[in-house]
Amino acid sequence: MYILGVQGFSHDTSACLLKDGTIVAAAEEERFVGAKHTAKFPIHSILYCLKEAGITLGEVDYLASGWASPWAFFKKTLGNVLRTSRKSKSIVTEILVPFVTILNHNRATKLLNRKIECVEHHVAHAAGAYHCSGFKEGMVMTLDGRGEADSGLLGFYDSNGVLDIYKHMKLPNSLGHFYGGFTEYLGFRAMNGEGKVMGLAPYGSPSYDLSDIIDYNSNLWLNSDYFGGIAIEVEKMEFHLKAFCHDEKLFTKRFGKPRKKDGRFNKRYKDIAASVQAKAEEISLKMLSDLSSQYNSRTLLVSGGVGLNCVMNGKLLQSDYIDDIYIQPTANDAGVSIGAAFDLYHKLGYKSDFVMDHAFWGPSYSNEYIKKYLDAHGIDYEEHDDIAGVSAELIAKGKVLAWFQGRMEMGPRALGNRSILADPRKAEMKDILNFYVKHREPYRPFCPSLLEEAADEYLEDAYPSPFMILTFMVRENKQKEVPAITHVDGTARPQTVSKKNNPLYWRLIKSFEEETSVPVIINTSFNIKGQPIVRTPRDAVKTFFNTGIEYLSIGNFLLDKCRLPANPDL
């Protein structure tokens, strides 16, 4: 039985295909259209999933959407825009037509002759965590900007897979909007730059008391004097808090002038970032305490966009309330397609023992395909049987190397198949990567990939972290050994790499260890600022040429920039 899960509008659109309760394929639309966090309907992602399974749309048994009442929400949210925007025609063409065709109950049912189910947004988030975790039961926490009428839920999955919802976080109260609002205040774009705020926070002190703006006592509340409604950036069709201030003068009087885009980071901005991060951690811990008082469980399941806050996740794991945690690796809205599909599969009466212990569900390209592409464009290369060993030698020599292998990752983190790799022993490597390769803010930290066997050696209170979504303290005796991946506060956001789930990447790190005695490398996503992670060999080669990356390992082929033409026709 095939179930097609769709996250079909708002931001981070995606598709996921299940066959008998197991993921066959999953991908985000941004990788196909080249626009990060796109709101375009995921037609390319859907077609990819069908192609990967070797089926047509007519062979899909059910379609699951991650919104309980998508048409009503869509109509309410975009009504004024459609009436007033000069771009209404393109909006109708790109959003409304495929949306109505695929998701409207009456028409789509007639068209596909298949049953279509709509799952409440935060239930889909919750299901994506529980049904992929491998845990029999667990408390669940989902938090983001907004769903249909809420911004999160607290609850519990029992051993039969039944969700008991303890609390809904009702709009306008939203931890995601609180964090996103301050993200914009600090000069970044909401629903895109929250990680930048999190990375900036350790440089400041949490000296601002924000308890009158947001808090959690018996429930979450957000002070409406500070935060207004949601605005929509029509040109990009992305939901964000462009006008998050209910009273901009109130914000300015209390916190000073907002930072301009690309402006300098003074102490005030750093302290505000630290205060916002500290408040988010405080609220999440209060929620966990509340959950723990309701349910006899030591396991926590996390999803929703706020669940990408790896520092907060680390604090949850280190708390006294739980022993185990699973964060859906695609915790943002892209993961809703996964959760909706699994929720429907369970509601149909089926059970699955599927565990999402890796995220490699996207397209792959054979050596034959890659060779044909390189030859067609006159790109010089060397072919190696041991591409992992050769790549590790180059990294050990201080070279920056892009790594394009296997199936593309689902989710916002590059996990060793679409990555840029470098030597963590060189402190200056952080500045080299930020300036010459990623073209991003100089304070931004880089994450390590390390052999899972070495986690205890390098991390305090180590815990499996295959998705780079938890933060740990780097052991004090190792911080000087790997300075490029150790943040200013002594932490790191690691990916623990297993030989089982990614043998080629594991082999590369193992080879690096054989060269250097260090089983750790820098791993950052294979993209540049403002662009999604690369998908195709063309994307990879183009990004390689336009950055300071020195080598590209793509399939079994090694490209050396020094041996290539300056302006190849790609």
Describe this structure in words.
With 570 residues, the chain is α/β, with parallel strands linked by helices. Among the domains are: 2-123 and 333-347, Nucleotidyltransferase, domain 5 (2-Layer Sandwich), CATH 3.30.420.40; 367-563, Carbamoyltransferase, C-terminal domain (DHBP synthase, Alpha-Beta Complex), CATH 3.90.870. Helix content is 36%, strand content 19%. It has an 8-stranded mixed sheet with strand order 15-24-23-16-17-22-18-21, sandwiched between helices. The protein has a 5-stranded mixed sheet with strand order 3-2-1-4-5, with helices on both faces. A 5-stranded mixed sheet has the order 8-7-6-13-14, with helices on both faces. A hairpin with a 5-residue loop joins strand 7 and strand 8. The longest helix is centred in the middle third of the chain and has 28 residues, at 267-294. Residues 72-97, 99-112 and 231-243 have low confidence and may be disordered.
Find the structural class using helix and strand composition: alpha/beta
The value of Rg in angstroms is 23 Å
The CATH first-level class of the domain at 367-563 comes to Alpha Beta
**What share of the residues lie within helices?**
25-40%
Low-confidence stretches: 72-97, 99-112, 231-243
Rounded average pLDDT: 88
What's the total number of strands?
24
What is the CA–CA distance across the termini? 41 Å
Instruction: Categorize the overall geometry.
Output: globular
User: Helix count, per DSSP?
Assistant: 19
